[in-house]
Amino acid sequence: MAHAVRFHETGGPDVLRWEEVAVGSPGPGEARVRHAAVGLNFADTYFRTGLYPVPLPSGIGVEAAGVVEAVGEGVTNVAPGDRVTYTGFRDTLGAYSTERTLPAAPLIRLPEGIRYETAAAMTMRGLTAAYLMRRIWPLKAGDVILLHAAAGGVGLIVSQWAKLLGLTVIGTVSTEAKAEIARAHGCDHIVHYGREDVARRVRDLTGGAGVSVVYDSVGKDTFAGSLDSLKRRGLLVCVGTSSGPVPPLDVAKLAVKGSVFVTRPALADYIADPAEKAELAGELFDHVASGRIRIEIHQRYRLEDAAQAHRDLESRKTTGSSIFLT
């Protein structure tokens, strides 16, 4: 019998339940996938708490890797027996499961050199890093960037990708242990945001100029410092809100800060075009398969332990990527 983690009400990690579920045959445009590994992402907590509303009861999780067992009418992008990975948003919700049916369109065939665990740990994070590095801003060798949560799953991939592009990376962390991990993956300078003034330290490191781009996945606690770290006409990329939503912004401040830009991108808008998605995924897979980018899986959980995994994630105990094994 198949199993899945589901929630019948919004709230803390304890609302997550391990349940038996029936998995039917795939309908038109669908595929049935048996999971080998499932990704754990901070965005999963937003569905659980109700920040991202969904009809209840609901499954949870948007990223996994496994084998296609059957396809429905009209499916041409995958076939039974294919090794696949996927990520998405509401269209893929329900990944915390041993087996499921889902729309076939998000499925990406896995190259032979990429293991299931690696794929589950990197598809969302890796595609996020890919569009941040290749689509958001015309980065060039010599540019300096500020990367918050540099020891996190996305942070470790972005740091390594940034070094491939010849960028200087200033990374923020909360502990010395995380600082060591960030340094090992390409961060040139470390700022401890719990005990240092981030913007002041960034100005010191850049000779007063500031950075070209800030990648901020923390949100409320770091937003003001991120704005103050930008050089004239720099860009603040708000890619997450692990500390809470960013405060309302008076756009007049953007001019005062140096005609800076702010964006809140979503991965879905950068992989909506199948050709662009294939290009980003191909570049990501090539870097990983060649060893130029290492995917660090620092936490592994059983699916039935999803509540504990969420507690660890929200308390910032995790580093690198986290996955569930089915």
Task: Write up this protein.
This protein is an alpha/beta fold and 326 residues long. The chain has 2 domains: 154 residues, Medium-chain alcohol dehydrogenases, catalytic domain (Quinone Oxidoreductase, Chain A, domain 1, Alpha-Beta Complex), CATH 3.90.180.10; 128 residues, 3-Layer(aba) Sandwich (Rossmann fold), CATH 3.40.50.720. Helices cover 28% and strands 27% of the residues. The strands form 3 sheets. Strands 3, 5, 6, 7, 8, 15 and 16 form a 7-stranded mixed sheet that branches. Helix 2 packs across helix 3 and helix 2 packs across helix 8. The radius of gyration is 20 Å and the shape is globular. The protein starts with a strand and ends with a strand.
